[in-house]
Amino acid sequence: AELVASIGDNGQDTPGTATMRNGRYILAAGHYRRHALLALRAPTMDLMIHENITDQQLYELSYRENAEREGQSALDNALSWKRLLDDGVYESESELAQKVNLSLPSVNKTLAILRLSDGIREIIAEDPCAFPMSTLYELSLYEPLVGFDDTRALVMAIAAGEAGRKEVQEARAKAQTPSTRKQKEISRRYDFTGQGGWSGALR
To answer: 174-190, pLDDT tens digit by residue?
Structure first.
């Protein structure tokens, strides 16, 4: 809504980024601007056209612009990267890491977010920027230990600003540590009878 108002008052200051494929424009960046222009019933959109670029280059343009403008959530990255790897746009996580200028462990940990159950990811998707990659990675290790309900409670606390990575780490450490509580010793009774007919009991 803010972008609609801004473009309505000032026009489109920044062009979108696109390429041409089979006579059609494919946007790499500018999707929010496009939606705003559609809402304003604008007949055209200003674009910067890059000719003959590959799918890799198309994604890299999109990634750089979004990262520079507003930052992308770790969940957004995980979903995008999995799709790119599944579609063969990048042959390996190592190649992807090199192209987005991140370490391979960072890419590995980001993709590990997708191990979270659908229900947990749906909650995170409501406000993905509240969940840094490091926190989501800890959650991906925590959920298999405790299940959905306990993980959901912790995710809700994070969304409310009441917990973070440290709290997830502490909860995971507690879940991984076996209970050292001493088992209660139960007294057993042993009855016996002696010669001469007498009887007794030991505990």
So the answer is: 999 876 566 666 667 77
